[in-house]
Design a protein that fits this description.
270 residues, alpha/beta, Rossmann fold, Hypothetical Protein, Haloacid Dehalogenase-like Hydrolase, Chain: A, domain 2, 8-stranded mixed β-sheet, 6-stranded mixed β-sheet, 23% strand
């Protein structure tokens, strides 16, 4: 295995950098790792499915405390670098209007994901279960797409409802199931990898300069396309299968131990 020598390292949030269960926290060892990367002159970045407006308070504190440089949000659809927009890929407004109209007509709960927040339409037991699982703050607003650029949509339904819901969704768009009651609906070309590549090109960097840590299905393209992809020990099996390396689980100081084992940072007191 070639030892990675990244110039920038990307971290997914939920169950990679942030334990979103029980006490909900960023492991102290992960903070140590972030500081160690900065000390070595390696940039640090977030790469998440969340929009910036619904980042957990503890993640916002870590961004400030550890000097995280970049946030790749909404599965790569909106990228900010040191608080300034670097790349953005909004969905066509007419497409959004037509889709929400169709979903409302069939009483399918869904939500708009904008830079400004998460806005729900037609809440039900499916949306409640999914949004509660990640403790996602949201506002009920069926007209949000008229005021804000929409970068992604969430549609709330189970796999048992596929026959009823799938014909309503745009052909060719990506469907990524992140909860038994919810999917991310992305543009066909949308991914964390696209957002990362667009941002790095503006900074004069290549994908080969990047390293990334993730745990879920929406991290697949990111881990495959960066120079070195790391799956958490708690990652889904299909992500581990494409990763260059599998580090210990988040609960077992995975980020810190992975970076030390790979020689990216030096071992020290956690």
């Amino acid at each position: 295995m070639t030892q990675p020598k990244p110039k920038i390292v990307f971290f997914d949030i939920d169950e990679t950098l942030y334990i979103n269960r029980g006490e909900q926290r960023v492991p102290e060892s992960a903070k140590t790792a972030l500081r160690a990367l900065k000390q070595k002159g390696i940039m640090t970045a977030i790469a998440t499915g969340r929009t910036i407006a619904v980042l957990p308070e503890k993640i916002l504190a870590v961004i400030e405390e550890c000097g995280i440089d970049m946030i790749v949000s909404i599965n790569g659809q909106y990228v900010s670098y040191r608080d300034k927009m670097l790349a953005a890929f909004p969905v066509d407004k007419q497409k959004v209007a037509e889709l929400t109209g169709s979903l409302k007509a069939h009483q399918i709960a869904h939500a708009f994901v904008a830079r400004e927040g998460l806005f729900t339409v037609l809440e039900d037991e499916h949306s409640a279960a999914a949004l509660e699982a990640l403790k996602l703050p949201y506002t009920q607003d069926s007209a949000a797409h008229e005021r804000y650029d929409i970068y992604q949509m969430l549609v709330f339904y189970t796999e048992a409802q596929n026959d009823a819901v799938l014909p309503l969704l745009p052909q060719g768009d990506q469907i990524i199931r992140w909860h038994p009651h919810a999917i991310d609906l992305l543009q066909a070309s949308g991914s964390k990898a696209r957002g990362i590549e667009a941002a790095l090109s503006k900074l004069g960097l290549q994908m080969s300069d990047a390293m990334a840590f993730g745990d879920g299905p929406n991290d697949m393209e990111m881990l495959q396309e960066v120079g070195f992809g790391v799956a958490m020990g708690n990652a889904v099996p299909e992500l581990k299968a494409v990763a260059d390396y599998v580090c210990p689980a988040i609960d077992d100081d995975g980020i810190y131990r992975g970076l030390v084992d790979l020689g990216v940072i030096d071992a020290g007191i956690v």
